[in-house]
Amino acid sequence: MGQTVDIDDFRAAMSRLAAGVVLVTAHDPDDGPRGEDVGMTATAFMSVSLEPPLVLASVRVGSRMDELLERQPRWAVSVLSESQRHIAGRFAMRGRISDRLLFEDIAYYRGHHSGAPVLGGALSILECETDQRVPAGDHTLVIGRVLAARTPSADGGPLSYFRGRYRYLS
Questions:
Q1: I need a surface site. Which of 15, 117, 126, 169 has the fewest CB within 10 A?
Q2: pTM to 2 decimals?
Q3: Hey, what long-range contacts does 149-156 have (CB within 8 A, 24 or more apart)?
Q4: Collapsing DSSP states into helix, strand and coil, what is residue 29?
Q5: Which of 90, 75, 78, 59 is nearest to 166 (CA)?
Q6: Three-state SS for 7?
Q7: For 2-32, how does the pLDDT look when each residue is reduced to its tens digit (9 = 90+)?
């Protein structure tokens, strides 16, 4: 039972699992006079339940998003289209610039239920309120009750992630 899998082998094996790409966003009202919007690209996102409607997002422990979602229960998810690859890359960078600058030239509006940035052109939008936070290794599984679900854009295909690269379905 003491045997552990090699992390590089695990990473390589999991890279063969194709995943959809989403942008998880939240508004931090405590950061500065007008607050600050925070976003992160995620591929570890899934539907959990229909009754009640629940989704799960996995966030790295100690990340800005993990810290924010510990005290801010409302957040949003924008399911990215293939034309939003640049947004996925921007919000996935390590050691990146401030979140305020990341949102600067992106078309978004504020979610009615969450107050979080919601991307224009996203394939679908979910606004959520945290139901549970589950510690899981170096990540926190944030389970959210869906407050609103919309499919504003029927154009384009989904952005996916496979073998360490963003891909398009053909």
A1: 169
A2: 0.92
A3: 149/53, 149/124, 149/125, 150/124, 150/125, 151/123, 151/124, 151/125, 152/122, 152/124, 152/125, 153/81, 153/121, 153/122, 153/123, 153/124, 155/81, 156/81, 156/82, 156/83, 156/123
A4: coil
A5: 90
A6: helix
A7: 679 999 998 899 888 889 999 999 999 887 7
